[in-house]
Amino acid sequence: MAKKYSNAKLKQFRKSIEKRMEEIAEDMGDIHDGILDNGNDSEGSSQESVFSVHMADAGTDSFEQEKNYLLMGRESDYYKNLEIALDRIDDGIFGICKICAELIPEERMLEVPNATKCVGCKEKEKLGLV
Ligand SMILES: [Zn+2]
What we know:
Elements: H1 7-38, H2 47-56, H3 58-91, H4 106-111, H5 119-126
The protein binds zinc ion (ZN).
């Protein structure tokens, strides 16, 4: 019989993953707003005030923008990973090492919900042993 996490445990994992997805969605909303604030000023109705703010820190603007896009990318990657983790729960393969088919410890799955390998196998893979 293949090992797997109990349904109760999977429910817990799902809850914690969904909570994190909510947090990320919120964060991304904030970052997105930041990008809009710094970016598309031309469609704003209060052109003048926008313009004067722009004059004040024109130098930091592009930097802030870049940082925000970077952040967006990172957050959305993480979000995708969490979606994948949820798929794995649905498929009943969540927390099972792809290589040795042992259960990946709970702490690791909470830390890296989309992990598909246990730490031991990951290390071996890094060393080219699997
Ligand atoms: Zn393994």
